Amino acid sequence: MSLFMDMSITCPNCGAVNRIEAVESVNADRRPDLRDAILAGTFQVSPCESCDEPVRLEPQFNYLDVSAGLWIAAYPGRLMPDLLEIEDSVNEVYRKSYGAGAMQSAQAVGEVLQKRLTFGWPAVREKILLRAEGIADAEAEMLKLDLMRRLPEAPLAPGIELRIVDRTGDGLVLIWVETVSETVLQEFTAATALLDEIRGNAEGWAPIRAALENGPFVDMQKLYMGEGRAVAE
Ligand SMILES: [Zn+2]
C-alpha cells in the first residue's frame, strides 16, 4: 500500500500555512499513478490555499517498484551533506524490510530489488526514469563524469547537480539544476553512444564503478564530497 500523513508546510510565496497529505511510502506496483506523478513533477505539489502558487513538499519517503526491481529511500536535497549517516540508517531499514532481517517472503522480493538512496526531487525522478529506460544508473553516473571532462564550462558547485531528465531520438537530455530550488541552469543533449563507449571500457571504469556502487547512494557527487566511505576489498 501507499501511506500518507498530514503535514504542515509554509508557502514560500505568501507565508500561509498549508495542510498537505505527505506520502511516507509509495508502492508503484499498486499505484502506478504515483510513479507517473513523480516523473511528471506533479507529485506532492498542490496550490497554496491562500495565494494559489504551487507548494511542494520535500521528498521523504520509501519507493517500491517490484516490477521494475527498484527500491528507493528518497530524502530531501538539503540533507545530502549527512550522506554517510543516512546511508547507514537506510541500509538498516532495507535490511529489516527486504534483507537478512526480513521475513522469508520479503527477502525473496528483495532479491530482485536494487536498493538506492536519493537526495532531492531531480534525483529520485532520474532513478525511476533510468530504470524505465533500461539504463544502469552507475553507467549514467559514469557518463556524467565523462561529460564533465568534456565540458570545461560546467557550472559545477555545491548544491548544483547534473541530472538526466529525458531520452529522445537525439540522446539523453541532461540539466544542470540547483538541487533544492530545482532551478534549471542549463540543458543539453548527450549522444547515447557515449554510454556504449563506457560499457566498452569496463576495465578502465572499474575503480569508479566500484566507488559508485559502494552503498545505496549511487551518485557521482559522492566522489567529490570529502573522504567518503572506504571501498571494501
Ligand atoms: Zn501562498
TrEMBL record:
InterPro entries: CpXC_dom. Pfam families: CpXC (PF14353). It comes from the Bacteria. Residues 9-144 form the CpXC domain. This is CpXC domain-containing protein. It comes from Pseudooceanicola nanhaiensis.
